[in-house]
Structures are given as C-alpha cells and as structure tokens.
Amino acid sequence: MNIILAAGVAFIITALATPLTIKIAKHFGLVDDPARRPHPAHVHTKVIPRAGGLGIYIGILAAILIFLPIEKYLVGIIGGITILLIIGLIDDKITRFSPYLRLTLLILAALFPVMAGIGISFVSNPFPYLIPGVVIRLDTLIMPFEFIGPHKIIILADLLALVWIISLTQIINWSKGVDGQMPSITTITAITLGFLSLQLFNKGDSNQLNVALLAFVTAGSSLGFLLFNWHPAKIIPGFSGSTILAFMLAILAILSGAKLATALIVLAIPTVDFIYTFFRRILQGRSPVWGDRGHLHHLLLDKGWSPPQISLFYALVSAMLGAGALLVDSESKIFLLLGASVAAFVLILWANSFGGLLNRRDRVSG
C-alpha cells in the first residue's frame, strides 16, 4: 500500500510542480528558442520551456523525504540528483554549454552515490557452465585510505558503478528528441525494476521493499512529467530532466541486486542507438558528444512517423521487453538481451539506409 501511495504522491507533486516550472522557465529565460539555440537535433520550431528536471526533482525528493528513512545511500542519491538539477538549469540558460564540461560535472554527480556506498559488488553469472559460481564477485580488490577517518574504495565495484551511471545517463539523454519519448521509456523501465525488486522481496530479500518503493516513486514522477511532455509538449525535459530520471534508473538497477541486464533489456533500442551513434560520429571524423540529426527517432520522423507514434513505439517495445525480462531467469536474460540488441541494430540500419537516401535526395533537389 505504501508503494502505491508513494508513487501517487510523486505523480501528483510532479504534476503540480511542472506547470509552476513552466512559468519559472519562461520568467528566467530557460527556454528552447530555435533562433537563439540552433541545434541539428531540434525538432521544435517554436519557443518552448526547458527545465523539466525541476518538477521531476521536486516530485522524487518530496516522496523520498515522506516515505523513506534517510540513510547514507539516499543522501548520495539526493546529492547526485541535486548536482544534475544545477547542471541542467545552467545548461538551460547558457546558449553554448560545453558537452565536455557537462560530462565532467556528470562524473561529479555520479561520485555521490558511489561514495555513499552504492557499488556493483557482484553480477549474476550468465554462463555458469563456463565460469564456476552463481555470481561474479567484484568486491575483492579494496584500497583503504584515511580522510577524516578511515574509508575504503572497492576498486572494481565502484569503478563499474561509476561507468554504469554515466553511461546510462548519456543513453537516456540521447533519447529525448521527440515529445513524450524519454518519460515514456523511463516510466516503463522504472516500473519493470520496481516489479523486479518486489520479486526479490518475495524471495526473502527484505531490503528490496524500499528499493521497489523508490522505483515506483521514479515511475510516478516520470509519468507526472509525461502529462506535460506529450505531443504537443508544453515543456521539454532538458538535460536535467533526462539525466535525473536516468540517474535514478541506473541506481535502481544496482540496488535491485545488480540487475543491469534487466535495465539494458528494457532499454535495448536506446542503448543500441547510443552505441551506433557514438561510433558513427567517430567514423565520420566528428566528436561523439556533439549532437546531430541521426538518431533513430529523427530517422523515423523523416520516414513520416508522428511524435506520438514514435513515443508509443518506444514505450510498447520497452514494455514487451520489460515483461520478458521479468519472466526469464538470469541465464536466459543474456539471450533475450542479445536478441533484442540484434533486432534493434537491424532496425537502426534499415532506418539509416532510408534516412541516408532521403538526405541525398534533399541535397540534390536543394
């Protein structure tokens, strides 16, 4: 009952805070103006408020403070999303915010939960017939140090957690180009991770109840923002909105028994699109962190899909993959992940082929 109530509170507070965020964004000039901030990935032609992360932040923070006891790991989470909110609001105001500086600050935000003890101590062994053991331990290499008292760095566990958080925030951030797309994906992923934690709780892991509550709080806040981000969007998430929700998903995947594969299965299309785009830009001789209009959602727009169709497509695929991830065991998840990734890759190749042909025709006719 508390889980449903917490999700409802996060939803309502975000839904109430977002209209206020829209007014604040307009008053302080935190808007996306195509004339002032030209960007090849933009699909909006009118001025639209940014700063969507503010409403999401308020909803998640309020629900955490109301329903969860404040422990060290939650302090790390709150510290991380606070840094992301500040970065995002600055990015919303400044016309040209260096992506390299953003990445540096993103690493700083990711350090908060890692320093609070959120690390990937183990991963499920996907190949028990090849590698002995049910899990693969990552917490055996420890480096103690003194800084106002004794501390320790669990090298592999902390390093992998840091890379995971940063990577997932970038994956989600690159999948917010169409109205409703990003919050649809994050809502489905958070719900999947919430049900995963409930499964683990029913198997005897009492700590998973609070993790499930945190997951449904994230889903509630994401859904509350989706009300205003659905096409035609009244507000867009900006850097803060996408990274705060992605940050929460990355943490939840770790807290749900290091179920990174489950999150990647649900996010198969955004993940493969991220990897494809990253290397495509490098092969084209460009920096991978500078945006372009080559993501899958852009190519689907070029093919004639509407923003609602694209968002519903992403949501439907994510929901089907999430249901599959909850029904299979750890060993089968690897094959599900591989199958989903291959299918996503084929889809992106097909869309790129069509998009490339379309762009060549445009250049010829122009």
From TrEMBL:
Chief location category: membrane
Residues that, per the record, bind Mg(2+): N173
Reported cofactor(s): Mg(2+)
Membrane topology label: Multi-pass membrane protein
Pfam families in the cross-refs: Glycos_transf_4
UniProt subcellular location: Cell membrane
Cellular-component GO terms for this entry: plasma membrane
GO molecular function (one): metal ion binding
Transmembrane segments: 6-26, 47-67, 73-91, 103-123, 153-172, 184-202, 208-228, 235-255, 261-279, 310-328, 334-358
Protein name: Undecaprenyl-phosphate alpha-N-acetylglucosaminyl 1-phosphate transferase
Source organism (scientific name): Candidatus Daviesbacteria bacterium RIFCSPLOWO2_01_FULL_40_24
